[in-house]
Amino acid sequence: MSSAPSVDAILAGARRVISERGPGKFTMSAVAAAAGVSRKTLYRWFPNKDALLDALTRYEQQVFAARLQAVVEAQRTPPRRLDAALRLLVTYLDDLMGPDPLGADPGYSIASLGRSLRPQTAALAGLLGDALDSVPAVRAGRLTREEAAELFLRLAFSHYLLPHPDADALLAAVRSFAGLPRQSVARAAG
After folding, report:
1. Is 52 within a domain?
2. How many domains, in total, are found in the chain?
3. Lowest-confidence pick of 66-70, 89-93, 152-156
4. pLDDT, tens digit (0-9, with 9 covering 90-100), for 51-68
5. Are residues 177 and 99 in the same domain?
6. Predicted TM-score (pTM) of this structure
7. Residue 12 domain boundaries
8. pLDDT (tens digit, 9 = 90+) per residue, 90-102?
9. Do 109 and 34 sit in the same domain of this protein?
């Protein structure tokens, strides 16, 4: 996401350290070690923890948007685009943060999800566009595309915070809610 490989390594290292320790207890030294860079390199890019946390938030939003764009653009029809996006939403946070959704600092995790909701809603609604028109409530005029996108994200966030025991069953229910068949209509994107 960045032009400098060390910046990407630092951000990935920060994500690992924060998930283990929480944002209040992570140290710049631990981030440098996790990233495999010197402290001097770390401080060249990020002069303090706040700058690093701000950059990490932007980085996570860029990663999500890039993955969403890749899976959506790999599909040719609106139903397939919607299906691919729903699959990503149900699995993205699990893949990103692992089995402990709240990590060492539940408040930070929840606040991070809250900060990401608006930009991720805009990205999802923008990329899906007319694919959201197949959602029954959108088609009937009871929801806008943006409202439907936000609801799908909120469902994904809920699954992340309170994991469904069967992610495939949850995805089937979300597909049904979206007006799609319970089984996938999209081919996996590479």
Report:
1. no
2. 2
3. 89-93
4. 998 898 888 888 888 999
5. yes
6. 0.78
7. 1-47
8. 888 666 655 555 5
9. no
